[in-house]
Design goal:
Order of helices and strands: EHHEHEEHHHEHEEHEEEEHHEEHEE
Number of strands: 15
Helix content: 25-40%
Number of helices: 11
Shape: globular
Mean pLDDT: 94
Number of domains: 3
CATH architecture of the largest domain: 2-Layer Sandwich
Strand order of the largest sheet: 13-12-9-10-11-14-15
Radius of gyration: 20 Å
Strand content: 25-35%
Largest sheet: 7 strands, antiparallel
Distance between the termini: 36 Å
Low-confidence stretches: none
Amino acid sequence: MKGVYIFNPEHDLALAHGAHNYTAPPFARQFRHDMRLLPVWVATAGSYIAIPDDCPVEEDRRWLYDHHLDITPVHFSKIADLGPCRIHPWGWDAALRYRLLQAGVLPEYLPTDDELDCIRRLSHRRTSITVHQALENAFSPGPVELKTIEDVRAFIKQHPGCYLKMPWSGSGKGIYRVIDPEGDNHMPRWIDGALKRQGSLLCEVGLDRIQDFAIECMCRDGHTMFMGYSVFDSDFHSQFGSGRVAPMEELHEQLLGMYPDLDPVIGQVLMAIDELIAPHYNGPLGIDMMMYRDENGNIALNPCVEVNLRMTMGMVTVAMGSRHGLRGNFSITANKSGFFLKLS
């Protein structure tokens, strides 16, 4: 069966909206347009990449040929013309399913409403709480879910420098870092709006971060397969900045050099995903983690900062390094002309 890859970076926003009638904002549509070929790095040879209908197929075909990638571009509205196919989106949500149905793709090639509801439920940030609870040891302070503005304010007062996170958001979006609660006039409005729109906030103690990384996995038929490590940098607001592209052995050695007891913890996390998520979900999955310096100056581990039930930038860097033999620093930059992928 033909494989068709789709870049829908608005996925996290669509999950927050929850319904099929979601329309991505202009910046997300621009990102989708400019980075439309990003999934080709994880795509299998001989598959297709769906591109927006206003993009030139021949130009994209030449780019793929010049980069020795055996992938064929096809306009989104023409996916149904390919016949039976297996769709591989950046992430599954009700809005994408509706767009594909409108394009003529048959329902049997798409997840059901119940499956999409399960993906949305597991994509809620409270899943990270469940993973923390499933581990044998309390490696770091776990997040707490709060539902009233009074409880959120009390948490802020008790934990200066904390993070507030909307239940559905990703790549650093929907995250508020509290710096000056007394002088920040925007914060109360942000908290109130987030609680009204999404019902709760996940509140986390601020940690002295020294290294962001993730494990990239694939859930299939009730089991979790480890695909590799991604090592990346994030900015002040926890948004993805850049990722290291290198052989997996190098990334593993880098992480072990900072935290020698990493491997047993990874084993525990994979067992938790096997139990909590894999029986209910088929597809790519990334678990963001973090090394930080504790109050004694020692390097400690937060084994589950985020759980992303979708493709991730980390999965792209894993494939670039392990499958395509590339090296460098992966980043996506923006200027007045749009978004650009850079490997330096």
